[in-house]
Write a structure and sequence with these properties.
The chain is α/β, with parallel strands linked by helices. 25% of the residues lie in helices and 26% in strands. It is built from seven helices and 13 strands. About 2% of the residues have low confidence.
């Protein structure tokens, strides 16, 4: 039996631009969702447990459509992101509907995760090589509270043909450690790379590493994230649509000297359904990957 590693899947959010519960939207030949391919790739890489962060209002649907098919393949656990699950002394303001963000979601898993763990989005297809890189890092000798990692995808491997995307473009030092994530919110694909068309035009070659919210952590870092979340709440608890995001708080951990974050390169091509118009391309790509023998049909038997 290989070394243990847990995959944490952020599945509590609803797609605002896409609409509906896109985490369960069928894209595979037998109606598989993108997250099914994530779990399959994680199992192949060596992960032995998956923890889904969901909301109680779609618990039954999620368990019936998701958990059953993984029986016998990987241990499955569920935790809930609850808006009222806050540190002592804090309460959710009346009328607040938006969840508190990905840091709050991740903290909901702290009692379910006791091994090195990865964090991913439910509706992103990351590819087999990315999970292999994550698992090797999570089970290596370097990981501890002061050493974390993120998978850095080539920007050109993450763009949509159907509109602009927001991306965190990474800067790293000579040792391959993350020094900064610069957020660009209107990146369009171009003939010779990409460009951000926000307040001013910023051009990219397409080779730049970007964060797609695919992280590797030691469980001892939960305590640091708890402190950061409390600090964030102190300033933002009454800001109606504010959210506490993992990349922002990782940046704070780096600045505080609490952890280094290794940028793990990958050859994987990321894709997802950012816009409804993306779905046919995703379905066609998965069909081709299946035809090429990279995934079985059906995915889980």
């Amino acid at each position: 039996m290989g070394k243990q590693a847990t995959l944490v899947i952020l599945a509590a959010g609803m797609g605002s631009r896409y609409g509906g519960l896109k985490q369960l939207d069928p894209v595979g030949p037998q109606g598989e969702a993108i997250l099914d391919y994530s779990v399959y790739d994680a199992i192949r890489a060596g992960f032995n447990k998956v923890v889904f962060i969901i909301r109680r209002d779609f618990e039954e649907q999620f368990k019936n459509q998701v958990a059953k098919k993984y029986t016998g393949h990987i241990d499955v656990d569920f935790v809930f992101q609850d808006m009222n699950d806050l540190p002592e002394g804090y309460t959710a303001p009346e009328g607040r509907e938006k969840p508190w963000g990905t840091v709050h979601a991740m903290l909901a898993t702290k009692d379910a995760v006791n091994t090195p763990f990865a964090v991913i989005n439910a509706d992103d297809f990351y590819g087999a090589d990315a999970y292999k890189a994550l698992y090797e890092y999570l089970t290596g000798d370097e990981l501890d509270r002061s050493h974390s990692a993120m998978v850095g995808f080539k920007l050109s491997n993450t763009l949509s043909e159907n509109g602009s995307v927001a991306r965190g473009v990474c800067e790293k030092d000579d040792d391959g450690n993350l020094t900064k994530i610069a957020e660009y919110i209107k990146i369009f694909k171009t003939q010779d790379g990409a460009e951000d068309r926000n307040d001013q035009i910023t051009k990219f070659s397409g080779e730049e590493p970007v964060s797609m919210n695919m992280w590797a952590f030691d469980p001892r870092i939960f305590a640091d994230f708890e402190k950061l979340f409390e600090n964030w709440l102190e300033k933002n608890v009454n800001v109606e649509k504010s959210e506490c995001f993992i990349p922002v708080e990782v940046d704070n951990l780096i600045k505080a000297g609490i952890t280094n974050v290794k940028v793990l390169p990958t050859t994987s091509k990321w894709f997802g359904v950012t816009y409804k118009e993306d779905k046919p391309d995703v379905v066609a790509t998965i069909k081709q990957l299946t035809r090429d023998g990279l995934y079985p049909d059906p995915l889980f038997k």
